[in-house]
Each structure stands twice: as C-alpha cells, then as structure tokens.
Amino acid sequence: MASRHDLSNRVALVTGASRGLGAAIAQRLAQCGAAVAVNHWASAEKANQLVQKIEQSGGKARSYRADVREPASLNEMVRQINSDLGPIDILVFNATGPQPFLQIEDLTWQACLDQLEFFVKSPVLLAQAVLPSMKSRGRGRIIHIASEVFAQGTPRFSQYVAAKGAQLGLMRSWAMELAPWQITVNAVSPGWIPTERHANDAEGDKRAYAEKVPMKRMGNPQDVADAVAFLASDAANFITGQNLLVNGGNALGGT
Ligand SMILES: NC(=O)c1ccc[n+]([C@@H]2O[C@H](COP(=O)([O-])OP(=O)(O)OC[C@H]3O[C@@H](n4cnc5c(N)ncnc54)[C@H](OP(=O)(O)O)[C@@H]3O)[C@@H](O)[C@H]2O)c1
Questions:
Q1: Residue 49 pLDDT
Q2: Which is the closest atom of ligand 1 to the Cα of 93?
Q3: For atom 19 of ligand 1, which residue has the closest CA?
Q4: Shortest-distance atom of ligand 1 to CA 67
Q5: Number of folded domains in the chain?
Q6: Is the CB of 178 under 6 A from ligand 1?
Q7: 154: Cβ below 6 Å to ligand 1?
Q8: How far apart are CA 229 and CA 239, in angstroms?
Q9: The domain that contains 217 carries what CATH number?
C-alpha cells in the first residue's frame, strides 16, 4: 500500500524556489514523488541547477521564470505548467523580496505595499488561476509560508509583520471557503532560518536568537520542507486553517 506521505501523481508549484527555503521545499516535495514546478525570478541558473539535482536523484521538476507580483507573468506560468506537468495539486506561496527593517517614522505606504505584493496580491492572483482546476477535481493543497514574527510582533519590522498577518488572514478565510471542495489551506510559519540572504547577519545575533529558542538551535530549511511535505500529503487530509509554527517552540513563552 502506498504511504500516506507519498506525493506521486501530484503536481506542485513552489514560488521563489530558486534558493532559500523554497529550494528545500521543492526538493523535498520531489523526493516524495511530486512533479515540481520551480518558480524563480532573478536566479535562473540556480533554479536550473536545482531542477538538475532533482532529476539526477530520480525526481521530476521544471523551472519557470515569472514575477509572482505580475498577473500576466503568473497566468502564463500556470498555463505552461498545466501543459508541461498537468494541473497543479499543491500550491506553495513562498516567494519574498527584500525585507528591510524600518522604524515607524521611516515607514511609507510603498514599503507596506512592497510586502503586500508578495504576501497578499500574489497569493490572490495565483489562487484565482489555480482554483478552477482544483475545485473541478475536488482536491487541492494551498500552503502559505508565513512567519513566527506575526506571533512575536517583531519591532521595526511592522510592514513585513502586517503583511504576514494578512497572509494568515487569507489562509483562515480560504480554509473555510474551500473546505467543501476538500481543498485544504494551511500555513507553515518558520522561525529565523539562515538562508543566503542572511549571510552577512552578525553571528552574535544568530547565537543570541538560538539561545532563546527553547530547543537551543536555529531551524534549518529541511525542518520547514518536512512540515510542508506533511501538509501537502494525504496524511494531512483533515487538517485545514492551521498555522504550524516551525521554530523549536520559540513563540510558546511570550504569546
Ligand atoms: N528564512 C527565514 O528566516 C524565514 C523566516 C520566516 C519566514 N520566512 C518566509 O519564508 C519564505 C522564503 O524565505 P527565504 O528566507 O527562503 O527567502 P530567500 O532566500 O530570500 O528566497 C526568496 C525567493 O523568492 C524569489 N523571488 C524574489 N522575488 C521574486 C519575484 N518577484 N517573483 C518570483 N520569485 C521571486 C527568489 O528568487 P530569485 O532569486 O530567482 O528572484 C528566491 O527564490 C518567505 O515567504 C519568507 O517570508 C523565512
């Protein structure tokens, strides 16, 4: 009997999968058997290398260049995935742009919009492109990569925290709205997990963060990828509207 974690005959789209957490998620879903669409924007070479790596280990993947903030770009990507791999069963909203720290006095509406483009506009546009097929087949998985910062209210980061909160709002409302079609909608909220873009962050800051995590370490991309693979699988058939914090218990003490 096939494992309930098996994703064979499923098609997954992971946005922003050329590097960072998205790349680990794409790789993990492919290991579980899914055919994976690796979306990228600037890093074509990295996305192609990831596809090669997946194929070399017996998996199926293709890379797709699209700006997740642009409707025409997104719709063309979905059309191409449908034709290359088949209809999308698993949709992972992961892509992110720059995340500047800004105190309230320096906050602009544009800075807020910059985050909302990734965490609200893009999920809305993509869901609209993919849902007709999910609804007609009576199944689907939508997984938002949110963040522990919403639970923690990280200071000088309010435009990002607010957009991540809005993303959780989409998740909760869509879970209710889509449940009758057996489409589940959940979020995975990582703690601070160093990716390439954190390469220049102070080692002392990382040590201090790890010290306050109850499990006394930072997470790694695999921790997040495993949670996404679980929520994408049949093992999570009856789980919807949940925000799964993957942060070693970091939000437990303070919220
Ligand atoms: N790492 C953490 O500590 C952490 C913690 C909590 C939550 N998160 C969340 O986890 C997700 C991934 O974060 P990360 O740290 O892995 O980020 P990352 O390493 O900076 O990677 C971001 C990804 O998004 C892609 N991207 C950027 N602009 C894009 C666009 N316009 N269209 C399509 N793709 C685009 C990038 O691709 P290109 O290079 O090809 O443009 C890249 O693959 C985000 O939603 C983030 O908020 C991360």
A1: 98
A2: 45
A3: 20
A4: 32
A5: 1
A6: no
A7: no
A8: 13
A9: 3.40.50.720
Evaluate: CB of 24 within 6 angstroms of ligand 1: no
pLDDT at 253: 66
Read off the pLDDT of residues 168-200 as tens digits, 9 standing for 90 and up.
999 999 999 999 999 999 999 999 999 988 888
- Within 8 A by CB and 6+ apart from 34, the residues are 7, 8, 10, 11, 12, 60, 89, 90, 232
196 lines ligand 1 (CB under 6 A): yes
Q: What is the pLDDT of residue 180?
A: 98
Of 91, 92, 96, the one to substitute when testing ligand 1's pocket (max ligand atoms within 8 A of C-beta) is: 96
This prediction's pTM:
0.98
Query: Taking the CA of residue 199 as centre, how many other CA atoms within 13 Å lie in the half-sphere pointing to its CB?
Result: 3
CA-nearest residue for atom 42, ligand 1, is 16
Over residues 75-100, mean pLDDT: 98
Q: Note whether residue 4 is domain-resident.
A: no
Return the residue whose CA atom lies nearest to atom 17 of ligand 1: 20
Catalytic machinery residues? 160
Give the closest residue to 58 by CA, choosing from 40, 80, 37, 34. 34
- Write out the residue range of the structural domain in which residue 176 sits: 11-246
Q: DSSP labels for 87-130?
A: S-SEEEE--------B-GGG--HHHHHHHHIIIIIHHHHHHHHH
pLDDT at res. 251? 77
Q: Which residues pair with 25 in a beta bridge?
A: none
Residue 2 lies in a domain: no
Query: What's the rounded mean pLDDT across residues 71-90?
Result: 98
Tell me the average pLDDT across 145-151: 97
Predicted pLDDT at 252: 81
CA of 134 to the centre of ligand 1 (A): 25
